[in-house]
Specification:
heterotrimer; A mainly alpha; B mainly alpha; C mainly alpha; A: mainly alpha; 69% helix; 0% strand; flat; C: mainly alpha; 3 helices; elongated
Chain lengths: 145, 512, 112
């Protein structure tokens, strides 16, 4: 698919970094403000999709990108499951235990293992949405010739 | 011991996500891992069943203990009913995965098949084990979305159309289930099944509760393919690849359809007479209409799919009669007999219907066609397929000494003892028509002179496929031994106990 | 009470879309509108009159919060709805390639 005009390309180069940082802010502050893993992950995916739409699909190697996002997605979920299973081993032998120290209410580093879950779920959601988008683009480009 | 409950959900989920990462590097990784995982889970559930402990195992996820006897976390509960369903899911899953090693060579993208199979089994294990309403919905969606993809796996015209139809209808049913869960939350402000049972005790006549019950029967009835919600089943089950047809027809419609209705309507809502009447009427209609629709079918897998609807009707009749006897204050022994017949038929149907679909897959592997008018004379070429198909056909028609005979006998005896003479007559009548239908299958597929023009696609059937078929055929005979008191105590009696003494579930979990 | 009737009207609009439209994509859109009506119903269940959003800001008195549990349920259900819609759309574009049309009246290969 073709890219868009020069104005769109320049503005996207400037803005997509800001959108990515905003998504990261929502992911990491998930235990203090609304948002968390899923909403932040969708915004991060939006930053990458904006880049692909503005520059066209010929600017990148689609199959390699799809392999990368697919592996990222699966490994992020595996890390979440391993984190939850470590809760079984370390302290209490229950699944999804909150085993890191809880800080004071309202600080950034507090609430045990929940910020780690937010980060990995954010990564997983962004990778999954990108994989779906890339699968559609690959289908249009290479199959529907 | 209680920690082992969680393993039923985490292990298939972790292996489903391990396969895309490692499967690209190591060949044969996905097949070996799936078989190992399912074998381990089957051994785990067998060891629980044979250890003889009668207590219900409760596991509180996250360690959130109850506050002043009000549960605040998600509970995973393993009692007798969950145990036999776990056994059916994991064992039939193991045999289907083993069969798929040989069968799926014809398809591209084999890697994704094992991922989706593991996801489906993780979802079904979660549905059967959970004690929380919204958790039930989440695991139900995991299992059902994996099955949408698996139905459309070989991307031909028929399969895509069947999958689209299945998805739209299944999506609407999931919405009805979510709406029902929302209504229950509105009425009771809690999501734990045992807690809702305590709060709704004796309140089951208000119109809000009755409306919720109807909505939930519609939603779960569509997942379990009962009349009049059966329209997606013939297309979806006939277009899927054969090990997935065996899993869908043998396990999925039971784990998310019938099990959910049993758990919610016996253990959560207090049983009432109108509800039992509705369930029994739906079961009777499924039984009769399913077999009448199956008479004129010449496509092999469509014939088997319509018979699935009819056999599910048997299970629902057994359970519905038990519920009616319990609400009218009849003898508990007759109700226990009816429910035992229904649950025993559920286990038997998984085995013989799975075996029939695997046979249809083997025939399709050899000949490449599913049309009964174009087959014939396979009895000489494929001795194992024809022998196992013969035993499965006799089992589904209810011929002694196969297992179908004993479960249908239990249901008919319970119907006669409970004065449901019309149901007993209809059960015998439907059984005779089923026999006729399967004799047609046997004659046209195995015993005629061959009408098949064309080349054989393969010379012999691979070893993994025949192994699964032989194991299931042996099970068809062995499971009739479950009638006798020794085996009955291990498998059937705890499950029947959960449903007959329906209020024990909530008192065990809450504590008073 | 009036808001629940609005949710029901939205559900009926989605149902009308699924039942009467011929294009495959319009059926998918109708199903999505039905899903949104159920999500709205779930969120409205947890509303308590004069309630605040359930977030703890340091240095506030103890207000009455609205119920946060239906909001968590709806977040999970939105993710599930995303997966369902993605699946439906992939099957729909593959049907277009195989059958050559978006019209659902032409797609009747399986019958009986």
């Amino acid at each position: 698919m073709e890219g868009m005009s020069n104005i769109v390309k320049k503005v996207t180069q400037l803005i997509s970094g800001l959108i990515f940082m905003y998504g990261l802010y929502i992911i990491t502050h998930g235990h203090l403000t609304p948002g968390g893993g899923f909403a932040g992950g969708a915004i991060v995916a939006g930053a990458f999709i904006l880049l692909i739409l503005a520059f066209g699909s010929k600017a990148l190697n689609l199959k390699k990108e799809e392999n990368a996002t697919s592996v990222t997605e699966s490994s992020a979920i595996l890390i979440v499951i391993i984190l939850a299973a470590i809760g079984m081993a370390a302290g209490g032998a229950v699944f999804f235990n909150n085993y890191l120290p809880l800080g004071r209410v309202g600080e950034l580093i507090s609430a045990g293992v929940i910020p780690l879950y937010n980060i990995f779920i954010g990564m997983e959601v962004a990778a999954a949405l990108l994989t779906i988008f890339l699968a559609f683009v690959i289908y249009k480009e290479e199959v529907l010739k | 011991m209680e920690q082992l409950i969680v393993l039923f959900v985490i292990i298939p989920l972790a292996s489903a996500f391990l396969i895309p990462v490692v499967g690209k590097l190591v060949p044969y990784f996905q097949k070996v891992l799936t078989s190992m995982v399912l074998l381990a889970l089957t051994i785990l559930i067998f060891s629980y069943l044979f250890s003889g402990s009668e207590a219900t195992l409760i596991y509180k996820v996250g360690g959130w203990e109850a506050v002043e006897n009000i549960p605040i976390g998600i509970y995973l509960v393993l009692d007798g009913l969950s145990a036999i369903l776990l056994l059916v899911i994991n064992f039939i899953g193991l045999l289907a995965a083993f069969y798929a090693v040989g069968y799926m060579r014809r398809y591209t993208a084999e890697n994704n098949f094992y991922t989706l199979l593991c996801l489906m089994i993780a979802g079904m294990n979660g549905v059967v084990l959970t004690g929380d309403l919204f958790n039930l919905y989440v695991f139900l969606e995991i299992a059902v979305i994996a099955s949408y993809v698996l139905v459309a796996f070989g991307i031909e015209k028929n399969e895509l159309e069947a999958s689209f139809k299945y998805q739209v209808l299944g999506g609407m049913a999931s919405l009805l289930i979510l709406f029902g869960i929302g209504m229950i939350y509105w009425l009771t402000k809690t999501l734990n099944i045992a807690d809702v049972a305590q709060l709704l005790k004796g309140n089951s006549n208000t119109s809000a509760v009755q409306f919720t019950q109807i909505v939930l029967i519609a939603g779960f009835g569509l997942k379990g393919a009962m009349i009049p919600f059966h329209a997606w089943l013939p297309d979806a089950h006939s277009s899927a690849p054969s090990p997935i047809s065996a899993m869908l027809s043998g396990v999925l419609i039971k784990a998310i359809g019938i099990y959910a209705i049993l758990r919610l309507f016996f253990n959560m809502f207090t049983i009432s007479y109108e509800l039992a009447l509705i369930i029994t009427v739906i079961g009777t209609l499924s039984m009769v209409i399913g077999v009448l629709l199956a008479i004129g079918q010449w496509d092999l897998k469509r014939l088997l799919a319509y018979h699935s609807i009819s056999q599910m009707g048997y299970v629902v009749i057994g359970v519905g009669m038990g519920m009616m006897i319990l609400t009218k204050g009849g003898e508990k022994g007759v109700a226990a007999l009816a429910i035992a017949g229904g649950l025993f038929h559920l286990m038997n149907h998984a085995v013989f219907k799975g075996l029939l679909f695997l046979n249809a897959g083997a025939i399709e592997y050899l000949l490449g066609t599913r049309n009964l008018k174009k087959m014939g004379g396979l009895g000489k070429n494929t001795p194992i397929t024809s022998a196992s198909s013969f035993s499965a056909s006799m089992a589904i028609s209810g011929i002694p000494p196969f297992n179908g005979f004993f479960s249908k006998l239990l249901i008919i005896i319970a119907a006669v003892k409970g004065h449901f003479y019309l149901l007993a007559l209809l059960a015998v009548f439907v059984s005779i028509i089923t026999l006729g239908s399967f004799l047609k299958f046997q004659r046209y597929a195995f015993f005629n002179k061959t009408k098949f023009e064309g080349r054989l696609l393969a010379q012999k059937i691979p070893f993994t496929m025949t192994f699964s078929m032989v194991v299931m055929a042996v099970l068809c005979l062995v499971m009739s031994l479950m009638i006798f008191p020794g085996a009955r105590e291990v498998f059937l009696t705890p499950a029947v106990d959960v449903l007959v003494n329906a209020t024990n579930y909530s008192t065990t979990i809450i504590g008073f | 009470m009036i808001v629940f009737i609005m949710c029901f009207i939205l559900f009926l609009v989605g149902l009308y879309g699924v039942l009467t439209r011929r294009n495959l994509i319009k059926i998918v859109i109708g199903l999505t509108v039905m899903e949104f009506s159920v999500f709205l119903f779930l969120v409205l269940i947890g509303y308590i009159a004069h309630g605040e959003a359930p977030i703890i800001v340091p240095g506030m008195k103890e207000p009455v919060f609205v119920d946060p549990l239906p909001q968590a349920m709806v977040l999970t259900a939105i993710v599930i709805g995303l997966a369902t819609t993605a699946m439906l759309l992939s099957i729909a574009i593959r049907i277009y390639k195989k059958y050559g049309t978006w019209d659902i009246r032409e797609i009747k290969n399986l019958r009986g």
